[in-house]
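From the pipeline queue, job 12 of 40. The input is one protein chain; the requested action is below.

Action: predict structure.
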Amino acid sequence: MTDYLQRILRARVYDIARETPLDPAPNLSRRLNNKIWLKREDLQPAFSFKLRGAYNRMVQLSKADLRRGVIASSAGNHGQGVALSARRLGCRAVIVMPKTTPEVKVRAVRDLGGEVVLHGETYDECSAKAQKRCKAEGFTYIHPFDDPEVIAGQGTIGMEIMRQSKEPPDAIYVAVGGGGLIAGISVYVKQLWPETQVVGVEPVDADAMTQSLHRGHRIELAQVGLFADGVAVRKVGEHTFELAQRYVDRMVIVDTDAICAAIKDVFEDTRSILEPAGALAIAGLKKDIADQNIQGKRLVGVACGANMNFERLRFIAERAELGEKREAMLAVEIPETAGSLRVLCERLHGRSFTEFSYRMTEGCRAQIFVGVRVNDEHDRVALVQELLNCGFPCLDLSDNELAKVHLRHMVGGRLPAQARRACAGDCNELVYRFEFPERPGALMNFVNAFRPNWSISIFHYRNHGADVGRIVIGVLIPKAEMDCWSHFLNDLGYLFWEENDNPAYSLFL
């Protein structure tokens, strides 16, 4: 411990890094009934804590080592730290990155002057490639986590938290990949604040440290999930594991939905968007509060990175509400009769929909795919029971991965043969897009204005977070009532577009 304390105290991270703020998180604090602070490592020059350890290791290299250059394996953030440090020190840097690395991180390394080599799909494959080149070409290998000087560089975060806190926090939550960050923070904090708990957080599909601590030795995962790519490590470090055994109080594992919810939480408090690994500690903090029934405590979450691919935001936004237990995804069965959809909407009156999908089918029963906002898990359970009590068979799909990732985008299909025959005779199937004000009651106004003898054959609505709602609707209208239908469209007062000639309709619906 003394050796690491000395290393941390003399670490030269501030040649390149900045002391990041310890910001209060008022929304999270109020909602979770604890005093919560965020250690804002996302505000570093490379948007991650990793440059601390990389620079502290590289600044101690000899001039001969710097002339030969350095090489590193990285999922992104460590690579940026090495590249930025190399530019500061005037040496060559080769960064071996997984082919799955988000483009924003690859581009950032190149922009900083690093030579990027894309290889394999995981950190471990990159590490083997980098170390092979290291021996062949005389580079110095800069390990992303299992190096005492890298660990010491990351430990300066613990030193800053101590300096910035008016009194010791009750717990500090730290994301864990290879373990360098939590090793550095814990070895410093535990020497001076032994009562402060240090809690590690890992994704459920990349929990190498959790399993290693449980078994008492380092284990290697057969595979790791890549959503939180910054911590996608199959085997933790030797030095980091030893320090974690001595100084880490416990581990928490979280799923993808919880990480997405944490990204949203931090955005609401800071207007900054963390990457999945960067929000991992906050997701673990929230889960630990729920699991341990923690109240009235002083808690710190290390927001450790913000190198987010913009394309991921759509997925994260969809999963955040599920992660907060504020959305229910339900399969609801209704009679395939005129007016039954209206009855269901009346039962859900007052609730905000996130999704509503229906396609007419053969038979006497129809399945509606519904996303609806709820207050919490108890409210979700109560809603399901309410629908069952009203005679609507209902299946909760909120924890169904197939439904969450795929089904909500797949509801559709062609009109059943019996309905097609009706269309060829007395009815037309007409397809429209509508925009209506995104406010409670707008959907009910639409349904209530519908004539009882008109049948809805397609209905799809998704909440896009805008001030207008958008739906696609298919209707079966008797030819004799086409004038009435035209009056309905004009009187409704919503913008609409006819889509009968749209090739997407003819090909898929």
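Job complete. Residues 8-44+157-321 form a domain with the Rossmann fold fold (CATH 3.40.50.1100).
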